[in-house]
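Per-record layout

source: Aquilutibacter rugosus
name: PepSY domain-containing protein
length: 233
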Amino acid sequence: MANKSVVARTIHKWLALIVGVQALLWFISGAYMTIVPLEIIHGDHLEHAHSDPLKFSSAGRANAIKAMAQHFPDAKSVEFSTLDGHAVVRAVGGSQSGVIDLESGKVLTPIGRDMATRIASAAYTGSGKAVSTDWITKAPQEVATRPVPLWAVRFDDMGRTTFYVSPSTGKVVARRHTLWRIFDFVWMLHIMDYESRTDVHNPLLRIAIVMSLLMALSGIWLLLYSFHKRATK
């Protein structure tokens, strides 16, 4: 029994040493993800939730329908909205997406740098100002799941906010700021996926979980052994 206790104590000690650092990272990352509201992480407070009422004539609608059939014949659905002060219809799905001015029938996409800046600035509710607008053809880690190209509109606020605008739809497809970037980092530590930061079934995490279980079981065994040893004295 004594030899078994030595083996269990050795296993427990080394597992605690190896897994202990990760356990601390699980605690810290879990605490951050619990304390900071998800709405703030998503940046809901940084973008207007409302849209302006649509104003367009029947002639404008006819122009838009004609242009839609010409430029986006395989669109799966359409959305009526406003874009940079224009009443527009947005083609969704199909081989490509695009936006058409409801009055003129003109295709407004792909949008340029100036329009992307105006769209992001109009949607932004923070205290900063747009300081740069960059054309992104290779998605950075913080928007790795978004299709490129994108316009990255950066603001000079404390959170280093960036709005990513789709050139094909004119929509703000992602909002990134310091608290989101911290969340993304601690999420990486939490799930132990140091590449894509999305795989919660990766081998490294599974190994850490098994080691943690073994550490717990060896600790329980040592606790029961100590009680048994005291009882037999």
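summary: Residues 110-175 form a domain with the Nuclear Transport Factor 2; Chain: A, fold (CATH 3.10.450). The chain has a mean pLDDT of 88.
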